[in-house]
Design brief:
The complex is a heterodimer of chains A (302) and B (704). Chain A has 302 residues and is α/β, with parallel strands linked by helices. In chain A, helix 7 runs parallel beside helix 9. Chain A is elongated and about 80 Å long. Helices cover 26% and strands 28% of the residues of chain B. In chain B, the strands form eight sheets. Chain B has an eight-stranded mixed β-sheet, sandwiched between helices. A five-stranded mixed β-sheet of chain B has the order 6-5-4-7-8, with helices on both faces. A five-stranded mixed β-sheet of chain B has the order 27-33-32-29-30. The chains are: A alpha/beta (302), B alpha/beta (704).
């Protein structure tokens, strides 16, 4: 199925993507479809493009002091440049068992893989260093960001399977220590955690200067809860079973889910963390388009 | 309410199934995998919502359907009073209670038990039931006729008493048959309460109960009975020193299975005269002979008493002792007749023994009223015309009950001027030309000839009648015999209470040879007894016999104690009840009580009354009983099963009968099915309203 939410755009149905086994080809098909050119690095660094001045603070390299301005103002200012140099791009992919859920064709994990591949491809095309960490109850695979790690990343994605319980918050806290160099960090998960705990775990990434983007991947069944029959619902991760009467539960569930999403969204916004809700029934490129468009606007504001 | 199959009620547990399904098993068996139950867990599963019933009607219908079907299988029925249930189930009934009150019911407590049984039947009457109480012994009578009033029935039962009558079932059963035949009620029942004496039933009597009627025997008989009974008394008369002495013997019977040694006593006029002990073997008999007693007076009361036992009625035997008295006959010869004219007659009367007859021969001219006093019979032996006075005397004599025999001959008047002569006298008829005629016709149905009617009991055809007087009988006269030429030989006319018989030939042997024939003597004795209205004095009678009062009156008249047979008087029964005799009173009475009946005639002064001794039928002493059911089967000619098993209680109504009658289960089952149907309709409608898809649509919505 193709949708055209954005005029002129052509999006690829996730079910079609799921038939493409080669992740690189997939990423290329998706990314090349809507990106023409490069995006600017959102970070300041050693670049020839001047960005702005800022006050000198002890410790700053005195070579960056703008002496001319000092001559005019008698104050020390340091020149800042657009960092258009290569950046680190890291994907934190949740491969817990809940990510294996699929109510219609594409599981959340597959969808996340497509997304990760596309993002990595995009970054790789920008000469960024790409890396990935997959985790469930512990870190499953860790590919440090590197300009040469794109293929390894794709391989890691290919190998990722949802088979164990997840410990998102604990793993996030653990992995935050490894991102000391400012990176673009994309967290792809279904975020079944307490929003407060989740944000507590995400904040360190921001504090360390990382640009964190949270991709909240959900199956439409998780959002809409379309069940009718009274059944026993089994938790994919714990195996726990609970009798459920959708007739009674549905409304309450949807409300709680929306509250959960809104809570995460608002808390991310408060912490200047990008939050993107992805519905696995929606085309992947549409999600990327929306996200990158949003980033573009953000860059301009900055 | 009760249940025929209460175990089925355990099935009510299935009513919990809808609730169980609602509370426990509402979830589908297939498990839906879900990424996380984080939110679901927050929603309390065991919430009020979970337990709240949304579709009350649906749940109620399901529960009702299950409960009704289970209840139907348990076969419920309402427990009601079985008597009322039976009455209402089977309809009103007419009941005939046949209560045996024969003398044998006086044995031990038979009568009390019989009354109690009858009361119990009356207590079993309900609603529109009606009952008739029939008391029976030899005869049956309706004591209370077809009433629903239990009070009157109980009163009649209480007032009923054991009689002295003998048992006969046939009249009672016929009465029951008649009563039940007239009944229009759906149920017709008869209860026969008796000791079922074997002697009370004669095989040839068959009763046909109407269709649908049942008869239930209620026996109060005991398997073993004891008792001694005086069954008979024999009186041997003998003359001693000019006085008549009677030797009294009594027959004693032991009805028990043990030997008995009762003391047998004789009472005359209430005074003990003699007593003897007698040894009786089990079921044996014996006799006791007392010393002869002199019978000086008429109508002496004699009683034989033997021992004491549960049935006192047959321990006493009543009889009357009277001296034997000859019948007095007056023979009136015609004027001029020779002395031998009445010889044959005198000889005939002298030879009579039962009763002895005493004759006196006079001429017509000497007839006076005194000569007629105490006479039972007057013979006009070829007399000529009587004087008016004599004729009136004779007429008066006959009208009072006397007997008159007229022998016609040459001296008899040519014209019939005698008002007593039965017919019109004609001229003599001479049969010499044919060497005498014979009797061509004899009315053997008449008491005179009755004894001779059997073959070889006598032949009158040998008598030759050479001559006879023509006699044309009147329209009311009865011709008893005719000659072979059709002439009248013997004619009877009744005048007043007396009887007149005219013989158209002589009794002296001149016109016929009858006196020389052997049949002459018994024939003349029969004629004399008939005309004198003589009856053998019976020392006792059995209960149930009708007593013609002409017998005691005739006896009194013969003995000269009364001058007329139209005497008025009273009969006093053993219990003291009085019955008036006479022209306006009864002519006969039934001897229903055991003991002495006294017949007192007016004008008899202070003379002893005429006594009649009455005893119960000896067969009543035999208490051998028939098996009740077998008896009824034989009597009603129906299978014994019809009567067998009947009890005093109304037909037992079993729970099965009640349940079958009420058939509540059928309604419950239909109700259950209707509830199921309604449930289906309601459930489908709910499903459509909830918009279940094709997959869910197949599943009925839960009640909760």
């Amino acid at each position: 199925m193709q949708t055209h939410l954005v005029p002129g755009a052509r999006f690829v149905d996730p079910k079609v993507l799921s038939r493409v086994k080669d992740l690189e080809l997939l990423a290329r098909a998706v990314v090349d479809g809507f990106i023409n050119g490069l995006h600017r690095a959102p970070y300041f660094g050693a670049s020839i493009d001047f960005a702005e001045h800022r006050g000198y603070v002890p410790g700053d390299d005195i070579r960056r002091v703008d002496w001319r301005l000092y001559a005019r103002t008698d104050r020390y200012f340091v020149k800042q440049y657009e960092a258009d140099t290569n950046a680190n791009f890291a994907v934190l992919l949740d491969v817990s068992k809940s990510m294996g859920f699929a109510s219609q064709g594409v599981s959340k994990l597959e969808y996340a893989k497509f997304l990760a591949a596309c993002l990595a491809y995009l970054s790789q095309r920008q000469r960024d260093r790409v890396g990935i960490v997959t985790f469930d109850e512990e870190v499953v695979a860790h590919v440090p960001p590197s300009a040469k790690h794109f293929n390894i990343l794709l391989h890691t994605l290919d190998q990722a399977v949802a088979q164990r319980q997840g410990r998102l918050v604990a793993n996030l806290r653990l992995m935050a220590e490894h991102f000391k160099r400012r990176s673009i960090v994309a967290l792809i998960s279904d975020l079944y955690e307490n929003p407060e705990d989740l944000l507590d775990a995400l904040k360190p990434y921001s504090f360390l200067g990382n640009d964190l983007v949270v991709f909240h991947v959900l199956d439409p069944a998780e959002i809409e809860f379309p069940y009718r029959d009274a059944s026993r619902f089994q938790d994919l991760e714990t195996g726990e079973e609970v009798p459920v009467i959708p007739e009674v539960f549905a409304e309450q569930y949807r409300k709680m889910m929306q509250e959960h999403i809104e809570s995460i969204r608002s808390k991310c916004a408060e912490s200047r963390i990008d939050y993107v809700l992805l519905n696995t029934s929606k085309p992947l490129d549409e999600a990327l388009f929306a996200y990158l468009g949003n980033r573009e606007r953000l860059m301009r504001v900055r | 309410m009760s249940f025929l199959a209460p175990l089925f009620l355990m099935g009510l547990a299935v009513a919990a199934i809808p609730v169980f399904v609602h509370l426990i098993q509402r979830e589908r068996k297939d498990v839906i995998e879900f990424p996380s139950l984080m939110f679901i867990r927050r929603i309390p599963y065991q919430s009020v919502e979970r337990r709240r019933i949304h579709n009350w009607w649906l749940l109620a219908l399901r529960l009702a359907a299950l409960a009704l079907i289970v209840a139907a299988f348990a076969r419920p029925f309402f427990k009601v009073d079985p008597v009322r249930a039976a009455a209402s189930a089977l309809g009103a009934r007419d009941v005939v209670i046949l209560l045996d009150r024969s003398a044998s019911m006086g044995y031990g407590d038979h009568w009390t038990r019989a009354q109690n049984e009858a009361r119990q039947i009356v207590s079993g009457l309900h609603g529109d039931d009606r009952a008739t109480l029939v008391l029976f012994e030899r005869n049956a009578e309706e004591a209370v006729r077809l009433t629903s009033d239990a009070g009157s029935l109980r009163a009649a039962i209480a007032n009923a008493k054991v009689s002295s009558g003998s048992t006969r079932f046939a009249p009672a059963l016929r009465l029951a048959q008649s009563l039940l035949s007239r009944s229009d009620r759906p149920r017709k029942e008869a209860y026969l309460i008796s000791d079922f004496q074997r002697s009370g039933w004669e095989r040839q009597e068959e009763i046909r109960l109407p269709e649908g009627a049942t008869i239930a025997p209620v026996s109060v008989a005991e398997p073993a009975t004891t008792g001694v009974a005086v069954t008979s008394v024999n009186l041997q008369r003998a003359s001693f020193s000019g006085q008549e002495r009677v030797t009294i013997s009594a027959g004693i019977s032991n009805k028990g299975s043990d030997a008995a040694h009762p003391r047998v006593s004789l009472e005359i006029d209430g005074r003990p005269v003699a007593a003897q002990d007698v040894a009786l073997t089990p079921h044996g008999t014996g006799s006791v002979t007392f010393e002869p007693v002199t019978v000086a007076e008429s109508n002496m009361r004699g009683v034989i008493r033997a021992g004491t036992d549960p049935m006192p009625k047959d321990n006493d035997f009543y009889f009357v002792l009277s001296p034997s008295r000859p019948m007095s006959v007056l023979v009136i010869n015609g004027e001029g007749a020779d002395r031998t004219a009445g010889l044959y007659l005198s000889t005939v009367f002298e030879l009579a023994k039962a009763p002895p007859m005493k004759s006196e021969v006079v001429t017509a001219a000497r007839l006076t009223p005194a000569l007629l006093t105490g006479r039972s019979l007057v013979v006009l032996n070829d007399t000529s015309t009587l004087s008016t006075v004599s004729a009136e005397l004779l007429k008066s004599f006959v009208e009072r009950g006397g007997g008159l025999l007229i022998a016609l001959g040459d001296r008899s008047p040519v014209s019939g001027e005698w008002p007593l002569l039965p017919g019109t006298l004609g001229a003599p008829v001479d049969r010499l030309s044919v060497h005498g005629g014979t009797l061509g016709y004899v009315d053997y149905s008449h008491p005179i000839f009755e004894e001779f009617k059997d073959p070889r009991s006598g032949n009158f055809s040998n008598m030759r009648f050479l001559k006879y007087r023509g006699l044309a009988p009147g329209p009311t006269d009865h011709v008893l015999a005719r000659y072979d030429d059709g002439g009248t030989a013997l004619v009877e006319r009744k005048v007043g209470t007396g009887r007149v018989i005219a013989l158209t030939s002589t009794l002296d042997g001149s016109w016929n040879d009858a006196p020389t024939h052997g049949m002459f003597l018994p024939l003349m004795h029969q004629v004399a007894r008939y005309l004198a209205q003589y009856q053998d004095p019976e020392p006792w009678h059995l209960v149930g016999r009708m007593l013609d009062i002409s017998a005691p009156i005739g006896s009194v008249v013969r003995e000269g104690q009364a001058t007329t047979r139209l005497g008025a008087g009273v009969v006093v029964s053993p219990s003291g009840a009085q019955v008036t005799l006479g022209s306006n009173g009864v002519r006969s009475i039934e001897l229903a009580e055991q003991g002495f009946y006294s017949v007192r005639l007016s004008g008899s002064g202070d003379r002893r009354p005429y006594e009649v001794a009455v005893n119960i039928d000896p067969v009543e002493s035999d208490l051998t009983s028939l098996p009740a059911a077998e008896f009824l089967a034989a009597a009603t000619n129906r299978p014994a099963a019809v009567q067998a098993g009947q009890s005093l209680e109304p037909p037992a109504v079993t729970p099965v009968d009640l349940e079958k009658k009420q058939s509540i289960w059928w309604f419950l089952l239909v109700g259950g099915l209707v509830a199921l149907f309604a449930e289906s309709v309601l459930a489908n409608r709910k499903s459509r309203l909830l918009g279940f898809g094709t997959r869910q649509g197949r599943q009925a919505p839960a009640a909760g």
